[in-house]
Amino acid sequence: MESSKQIRIKDIARKGNVSIGTVDRVLHNRGEVSGETRERILRIIEEMDYRPNLLASTLASRKKLKMGVLLPAPLSTDGYWTQPVEGIRKAVSELHQYGVTADIFTFDQSDPDDFNGKAARLLSAAPDGVVLAPFFAREATAFITSLKAGHIPFVLIDSNLPEQGQLAYIGQNSFQCGQLSARLLSMLVRAGQKMLVLHFARETDHQNHLLQRELGFYAWFRENYPEQEIKTREMALSEQASCEARLLALLEEEEPAGIFVTSSKVHLVARVVEGSAFKGIRIIGNDLLRENVRFLRSGTVDFLICQRPMEQGFEAVQALFRSLVLKLPITEVNYSPIEIITRENLDYYKEFK
Amino acid sequence: MESSKQIRIKDIARKGNVSIGTVDRVLHNRGEVSGETRERILRIIEEMDYRPNLLASTLASRKKLKMGVLLPAPLSTDGYWTQPVEGIRKAVSELHQYGVTADIFTFDQSDPDDFNGKAARLLSAAPDGVVLAPFFAREATAFITSLKAGHIPFVLIDSNLPEQGQLAYIGQNSFQCGQLSARLLSMLVRAGQKMLVLHFARETDHQNHLLQRELGFYAWFRENYPEQEIKTREMALSEQASCEARLLALLEEEEPAGIFVTSSKVHLVARVVEGSAFKGIRIIGNDLLRENVRFLRSGTVDFLICQRPMEQGFEAVQALFRSLVLKLPITEVNYSPIEIITRENLDYYKEFK
DNA sequence: CTGAAAGCGCTTACAG
DNA sequence: CTGAAAGCGCTTACAG
Questions:
Q1: What is the DSSP letter of A326?
Q2: Any atom of strand C under 7 A from CB of A22?
Q3: What is the pLDDT of residue A241?
């Protein structure tokens, strides 16, 4: 059961009657080796099941790992996007001793052009790996094309894009989040009462994961209570001033018994409901922000569905390090937990604020 | 913003007018250095903010990391405990190239003496780090005393022990799991109906986390529905033959509307309920085992609460590696997600079977 | 096309 | 108490 000693380049060289330089050329396809020698060495490498010592390799090559990060700018000091950034900073600081550095770029959440500009700046810094939240699907896809052209590996967080060649995705299974929200809301609201799904600032190809949450929500009801009446309404974030009035009008018009807010903007809804005559509306939203927690505590919001955003940032950096420095295999899809926060278990999440 | 170049031992030595050997002695408290020199070098190290290059250090010292693992033996081929073992094996295999090996010991879940015997064998293998599931609290504590005497760092998984000097705990917040189960069950059962908490093979100091789940369950009701009638019943696993009869008798006697099974043994209960005249009993249990999934699919079990046991095993090994080889800081308490599996989102967990 | 040598930053005997 | 040298396994010029 004891594993045999490590095979070194030196062992391959000796067995092949060549120098370690030649073995190295074969290992890294650096050319300048005769076909015959190459074949022979390759066979020996295979036979002896050679595995490079990555500590030695990294040490000798003195490679530094420069990462590029591209995320939405937080909308406030305790907005959602401060959290992944915190995780990223923590990971980078830990890995500093291994030569890891990061350039963090943030873009305006309402401005695809700003995304493109920051993406260009990121590229010109020539990073060895990238962490990306593909907030604008179309623009992100174009950016990814450039990354692939430059053979720059990248990790997606928060929202996934299918089959784009990402090293990994780290984030929620948003469809499942929607399903769970539906199930929870169905338990809180009597059959026959209306449900409302609220999107903030959704656009067709933007923030795909909010759409996935909605789809999961509908899918659950279609399967379990096909009769359930559900409506979806969208509110542009830019109109935030008129937002309260619109919301109030919506409540009067629809008289929903339950509301599912697909994003962290649930506090906007809760504020209106709490100040209105419409008591007893059951509300589920996303993300553990201070503003949301307030309404969870007061009982206006019943559930917050969370996803450990700090951890997502942290793990994204770790994944790049593990792949690029340690050469370890990376799991492609990494679903963050879908955590259910209620007034009762809130205190166990104080770590998040 | 560019961080300055790395400070090396050589730089310290030059500045202190000593050799790198002396610096090394100071760094590792190897003695044989005059007090005066020691102070001076220490000051320079501080001043220059020296951080050792751990790749070089690990490479030069050629340390191998031998881990000892001590877990309950799985009760069946797809029993719960196969899963952490799988995660551990995966991590060890990935880290093999860095000299990581593991001796895995398993003990009989009903036999504390077997635990002690295996613990002794583990110790005699002189591991550099240990992964332990402290299944028998008393025996585990004694074992930990030996580990601490030998300065062997250890990671706890599955169940935590407070303040035992563990490098990390990786597992559920069991109290919170109980609270969430209570909240879910309360939404499924009408007020005034009876609830039952079922333990399997609990003993006072065994499996502390099952007790924590129960406490969380009671705490939630005390806070939210103090009138709720709840009873706890315990079933010894050794009596598994007579188990069905006892369960049936229990159902007849108590006529519960909801049952919370604190462990993965929920399939035992579901089988009895499904074969009985007592339809409509709402059941919540733990862990994604094939036997449990069957009853989730058939609708007899409403929710399974899960905790990613494979990931726990994997992370435990990674934590030891990160600490002992990479010298990275380790978060002491790492709560696994409390995942809610229903018939509807089950397919997203196929990865677990 | 191939080999020998220096070096990555640290550790570990060994000599004095 | 201190220093100089060899070595960890690999990479990187350089010489031929």
A1: S
A2: yes
A3: 63
Task: Transcribe A76-124 into DSSP letters.
Answer: STTSTTHHHHHHHHHHHHHHGGGTEEEEEEEE-TT-HHHHHHHHHHHHH
* Contacts B348 to A, Cβ<8 Å: 173, 176, 335
Backbone angles phi, psi at B229, to 5 degrees: -85, 125
Both structure tokens of B288: 């994604």
Selected residues 257-316 of chain A with any CB under 8 Å from a CB in chain B: none
pLDDT in tens, A24-82: 888 888 767 777 788 888 888 888 888 888 788 888 887 788 999 999 998 887 789 99
A6 touches strand D (CB under 7 A): yes
Residue A2 has what pLDDT?
37
B173 contacts in chain A (CB < 8 Å): 348
Q: Are A102 and A67 in contact (CB under 8 A)?
A: yes
Q: Do A3 and B96 touch (CB under 8 A)?
A: yes
For the stretch A310-349, pLDDT in tens is: 999 999 999 999 888 877 889 999 999 898 998 888 877 7
Note the pLDDT of residue A27: 86
CB pairs under 8 A between A and B: 82
B16 Cβ nearer than 7 Å to chain D strand: no
B92 and B67 Cβ atoms separated by less than 8 Å: yes
- Interface touch A3/B220, C-beta < 8 Å: no
Give the whole-angstrom CA distance, residue B158 versus residue B169.
8
B133 within 8 A of B159, measured Cβ to Cβ: yes
Q: Report the chain A residue with the minimal C-alpha distance to residue B223.
A: A344
Residue B152 beta carbon within 7 A of nucleic strand C: no
Residues (pLDDT < 70) of chain B are 1-5, 31, 201-207, 237-241, 350-353
d(C-alpha A143, C-alpha A346), whole Å: 39
A339: nearest Cα among A181, A135, A182, A161: A181
Q: Measured between alpha carbons, how far is B90 from B108 in angstroms, rounded to an integer?
A: 23
CA B199 to chain centroid: 19
What is residue A222's predicted lDDT score, i.e. its pLDDT?
93
Chain B residue whose CA is closest to A190? B187
Mean pLDDT over the full length of chain A: 88
Angstrom distance (rounded) from CA B324 to CA B311: 20
How confident is the model over A201-224, as a mean pLDDT?
81
Range in A177-191, A198-212, A213-227, B149-163 with the lowest mean pLDDT: A198-212
Closest CA to A140 of A128, A125, A156: A156
pLDDT digits (tens, 9 = 90+) for A305-315: 999 999 999 99
